[in-house]
Structures are given as structure tokens and as C-alpha cells.
Amino acid sequence: MVFQNYALFPHMSVRRNVGFGLRMRGVPGAEVERRVDQALRMVQLTGHQEKLPGQLSGGQQQRVAIARAIVVEPPLVLMDEPLSNLDARLRLEMRAEIRRIHRELGRATIYVTHDQDEALSMADRIVVMKDGRVRQIGAPAEIYAQPADLDVARFMGYRNELPVTVEHAQGKDVMVSGGLRGTAMSPLTPGTRARAAIRPEDLSIGNGPLQGRVDNIEYGGRDSLVDVVTAEGVRLHVRSAAPVRPGENVSLAFSSARLLVYEG
Amino acid sequence: MKDRTALLAAPAALLTAALFVYPFIYGLLLSFEPMKGDWLANYVQFFTSDRLWPTIGTTLKLALPATLINVGVALPIAYRMRAGSPHRKWLTTVLVVPITLGTVLIAEGMLTYFGPRGWLAHFLQLVHLYDGPIRLTHNYWGVLISLVISGFPFAFLLILSYVTGIDPVLARAAATLGAGPWSQFRHIYFPLLLPGLAMCFCLAFVQAFSVFPSAVLVGAPAGPTRVISIAAYEAAFELYDYSLASAVAMIMGLVQLAIVAAVLGSRSLLYRGPVTGGKG
């Protein structure tokens, strides 16, 4: 198990920390040394064996925690938000690092996270949970494109939600109030109230069925996050590289495959 | 002087100087001005007189066991209560009472409870557990019990604060690595607690070593519990030899200093860093 705050034993050197589980299992000394060295090589911490945890950086401490967990060769490795205490750059580095260790080790790992990017980039399978219940199990691409319900969609970055009424439905194709075409995520009958969800990056400023006024712009380098407020007062987030100014009236376009309509 | 924040400590330093350093130096110098004989006469007298030098042993024989009992018993109880028990508030309140009451009241209570005609004797005879005479006052045991009653709460509260200061996630991490309850204590808690235990031992020892009221009230001040502070008291207020009394006080301080220095010296060999396991 890898803990969120590492939980390294502060009074033991890196070597003794990593070897702790083996010593508890009564593994002979020479064997402990060999396996500790091997684990430290895997997390690329060779040369730091005699340091105390307090002398290491956050990323190094996390590597020690990982080495300590995997050295006992558990059938299942559990990681509880291991990157949440690191800064953004280190988090990206450690993400790749944990992927590599996982590949080399070839052991099933349960990785708990609240970060959708982390979940999508690291997992082979994602289990989305809310309020203690499993909402969806699937491959990252599946969860990303086809969230099972509105909560999963929200977690996966569908930040825009429109309250709509179903006007016309045929199979997956659905037409909702406001003349919007979308994809039904469950069987829908005309007249039912529904919610349509779409990601900021799936909306674009141009000729489309949604109209609104630019309210706020967050500059983000390559593109900006533009807040557009519709006539009904719904705030929509749009990722766009197009130059717009606050107060400007714009139209928003999207592909009907990316507008997901959920009952409710 | 660039850093003037040190000046903030000046009032405290002045107070310490006035109330401790000055009397200490005064007493030290006084101890070298005996009523008769050369400048070391008091110390020579102390270490040659059969009435004086054995008091060191007498006091150590009381203070060391009392301290070991207090720290040794407080540690497992405090450890058991680390996760917070519903009775903790109760227990700490009950334990603080002896500290606030002081040794004289404890002695008073002990005389009625542990005395030859006390409740304990009555009770034991009533249930025929022990019919012989019970002598737990006016001897060595009376003073030892009194030192435990007054010293234990102090040791317990101090150790409890050390124990609860250790991040419990460390023990959980050890448990996931296969450490049982004993191993968790032995390899995680105990090494992290040792510096605190050493400090607690020193404070409890100094407290016990300067025992005076209970040695007189529930002890046998003429014989087995004639502790060093009684010797100093006699010199000062019965023989009116302030110089000799100062010498006794200096020797008392030296013995305490030697024990404390030995304990804290070995403490420097231990780990003394933070007691949490990473960024919280």
C-alpha cells in the first residue's frame, strides 16, 4: 500500500524503510539487502540508501514509499492518491514513472485518484465511484466517450449542462428543445425532461444553434476558456483559440455525437 | 547586533538571573565559607560523616525506582490510549487532581488509607486476604507510594502528549507491511518515543529526587527515608549552619545533574527528527 502522505518511518534510513516489510516477514539479511537494492534500482534511488526520509524531496519520498510497497511482492498494490502532495510538474513526471514501474513489475495496481487526467492517462480500467457506489467500469476511452450517467460525465469533464425537453427521438439520435441535435445515452421518449452535457473542448465559436454573450475569458496559452451566457442564463464553458472580447455575442457549434443527452 | 529579536527574551533572562543564577552562585560561594576549617571543610564533612553522605544513596533508592515505575507504567497506558478513548477526559481529570493537591494532602490521605488502622488494613482483614500487620506508612514504602501517586500523573500526561504526537498512519503503514501490534510498538512507536521518554524520565527524576514533605510525613525521616533534602534542612534550620546546608544543596544538584546529563547524553545518540512520515 502506498499512502497519500507517504507514511515513511522518519527514524529509519531509506534502506531500512524499504527493507521493513521483508524483515517483518523474517526474510534473511542477505536476501533483504539484495531485494532492497533491486527495488531501489527500479525506482531509481540507488545512492540514497543511507539517507533519512527528511533529507529527501517529495518526489524521492514517494519513490521510497513505492519501493517499500513493491519490495514485498504483494499480489495487489494499492495506491491512495500518491501524487496529490506533489507539485504539478513533479506529478506529471511521477505519473510516467509509476506507469513504467507498473509495466516492469507486471502487478495489478489499484490506484485511487480524484484527478480525471490521472485516471485516464494511467489506467487500463477505470472504476468510477460516487457516494460509495460503483457507477461505471470500463476502459479509459469508453468512459471518456460514453459516460454511463450524468455524475460520471461530470467527473470526466463534461462541464456544460443544459436543461432540455426531448422533442424527437429515433434510436440514438435525439432532437431536444432549442433545436439541438444530440446523442441519447438512454432510451428517451418525446416530452421527457432531460439534461444535455458537453465538454468545453467540444464546443466551438462559429455558426451553430447555441447563442450567447461572452462573459469572461480565462487566457490559457494555446487557447482560452471562454464563458458564454445564453439568453436563458445558462453559463457555458468553451475552449477556443478564436479571438473574442467580453460582451460580444457569439454562436456556438458542436457535433451532435458529442452532445450527450441523459434522462433527468 | 543585527538580530534584535533576542532582546525579547531579555526580561525572562533577567528574571532567571535574579531568581535562580544569583541565589545559586551565592549558595555556591557560601558553601566554600564553612563555620570552621578550610574552604573545602563542608564537603569533606559531608563525605566523611555517616549522617550525611548515605543520604545520597537513600534518596537515589527512592527516586530512581519511583521514576522507573512512573515512566514504565505510564508508557503502556498512554500507548493504549493513543487513539483517544471515550474515558480519556475522565482519566486525565482524575490524574490531574493529585498534581493540584500537592504532596501534603496525598500524605494525609495515605495515613488514613494505608495506615496500620486504615481502610486498606481493615478491608484486607475483613476478607481475610492478609491478616498480618500492614506497614505502608512511616517507612520506605510510604514514601515510594507517595512519590508514585504524585509523580505518575505528571509522567502520564507528558508521555500521552508524546504518543499522540506520532502520526498513527505510520503504524498503519507498518501493519500493511506485516508488522503485528508488538512490532508496530517495538519498531515504530518506541524509537520515536525514546527521546521524549528520556526527557520525561529526567523531569520525573528531578522531581522525585528533591522529595521532602512526603519523606517527613509518611516516611521515617530519622532512618530509612532520611533523604538528602532532610539533611540540608537539618543543617540549615536545626544546626543553623547555612554554609553546610549550601554544600548539601550543591551536592544534591550535582547528583541530579549527573543523572540528567547521563540520560540526555545517551539521548543524543537517538533519532530526534520529526515524527511524521512525510508531507501531511
Largest interface: A-B, 23 and 24 residues
Count of extended strands of chain B: 0
> Major beta sheet of chain A, specifics?
5 strands, mixed, barrel
From N to C, what is the helix and strand string of chain A?
Answer: HHHEHEHEEHHEEEEEEEEE
Q: Please mark out the parts of chain A with pLDDT under 50 across 5 or more consecutive residues, or reply none.
A: none
* Oligomer category: heterodimer
Q: Mean pLDDT across all residues of chain B, rounded? A: 87
Give the overall shape of chain A, derived from the CA principal axes: elongated
Tally of helical runs of chain A: 7
Instruction: Report the biggest beta sheet of chain B as strand number plus sense, adding barrel if it closes.
Output: none
Helix content of chain B: 55-70%
Structural class of chain A: alpha+beta
> Total helix count of chain B?
12
The residue-averaged pLDDT of chain A reads 88
SSE class of chain B: mainly alpha
What is the distance, rounded to the nearest whole angstrom, between the alpha carbons of the first and last residues of chain B? 38 Å
**Approximate shape of chain B:** globular
- Give the low-confidence spans of chain B: none
Total strands of chain A: the figure is 13
Task: Supply the key terms.
heterodimer; A: 264 residues; alpha+beta; five-stranded mixed beta barrel; four-stranded antiparallel beta sheet; 7 helices; 32% strand; elongated; B: 280 residues; mainly alpha; 12 helices
What would you note in describing this structure?
The complex is a heterodimer of chains A (264) and B (280). With 264 residues, chain A is of the alpha+beta class. Chain A contains seven helices and 13 strands. Chain A has a five-stranded mixed beta barrel with strand order 5-6-7-13-8. A four-stranded antiparallel sheet of chain A has the order 11-10-9-12, with no helix packed on it. Chain A has a two-stranded parallel sheet with strand order 1-2. In chain A, a hairpin with a 2-residue loop joins strand 5 and strand 6 (173-176). In chain A, helix 2 packs across helix 3 (58-70). The longest helix of chain A is centred in the middle third of the chain and has 18 residues, at 88-105. The model of chain B has no long low-confidence stretch (mean pLDDT 87). Chain B has 280 residues and is an all-alpha fold. Chain B is globular. In chain B, 70% of the residues lie in helices and 0% in strands. In chain B, helix 3 crosses helix 7, helix 4 crosses helix 7 and helix 7 (140-164) crosses helix 9. At the A-B interface, helix 1 and helix 3 of A face helix 8 and helix 9 of B.
